[in-house]
Amino acid sequence: MTRRGLLALAAAGGLALAAGCKPLSLRWRGSESKKPVLYLYPQQETALEVSLAWDGELTYAYPEPVRTRGLATWSVTASPDGTLRDSAGRTYPSLFWEGTSSPAFTQAEGFVVEPGGETVFLEEKLALLGLSERESADFITYWGPRMRTRGRCLVTFATDQYARRARYTFVGNDAAMVPDTFVRVYVVIGAVPREDVPEQVLIPAPTRHGFTAVEWGGTEQ
């Protein structure tokens, strides 16, 4: 690079610092969790309080929860078909939020997905992991285009890593509730490294029964 080019880069870094932005040479080493959505299927119509403790910063949520003491809490009435209704009568298919956290999720194992193979790959893996066809369609229409745009990518199902950062509690009819079935799917989509990565072994989801909660989300890095 010419001396003029180096001076231009230095000037750009200085402007970024002056504006309160990160300099061009720095990279944030965390993860942005995109579109975790939570579906709720009680056995009968139930008034629920759903609280999320997230080890990071909650950047957006819909519907907007009450935020106190590090918790985000939604108050909804849930129907067996998954419809959620707030106190104003507005209905939602799920609870949605996004947030940032660090450090970045690791990808010590996973699956290399080739361009054009995203849909078949996701349909197969999501069915194995317990998502319904409707939930899988919601997942694929969000993450499928992002995988296609990236091209060849490494996909890791990092639900265990994610679950340690995102913890839910449920209260129904003024009593603590624990879902009889809780299906959680979280993907990390990254670049394919030069070294071979072991193929991940996935455990099939249990059969749904009783009060069921289902969550999916992911991150790109």
Q: How are the secondary structure elements laid out?
A:
Blueprint: H1 3-18, E1 31-41, E2 46-54, E3 57-62, E4 66-68, E5 71-78, E6 84-85, E7 91-92, E8 95-101, E9 111-113, H2 118-129, H3 133-150, E10 153-157, H4 159-165, E11 166-172, E12 175-177, E13 181-190, E14 212-220
Parallel strand pairs: 13-14
Antiparallel strand pairs: 1-8, 1-14, 2-5, 2-11, 3-8, 4-5, 5-6, 6-7, 9-10, 10-13, 11-12
Helix pairs in contact: 2-3
Poorly predicted segments: 1-28
In total, the number of strands is 14
Could you state the oligomeric state of the chains shown? single chain
Number of helices: 4
In round numbers, the mean pLDDT is 89
What is the rounded Rg? Answer: 20 Å
Relative helix content: 10-25%
* Helix vs. strand class: alpha+beta
Which descriptor suits the 3D outline? globular
Strand order within the widest beta sheet: 3-8-1-14-13-10-9
Helix/strand order, N-terminal first? HEEEEEEEEEHHEHEEEE
Distance between the termini: 28 Å
Beta-strand share of residues: 35-45%
The biggest beta sheet is recorded as: 7 strands, mixed
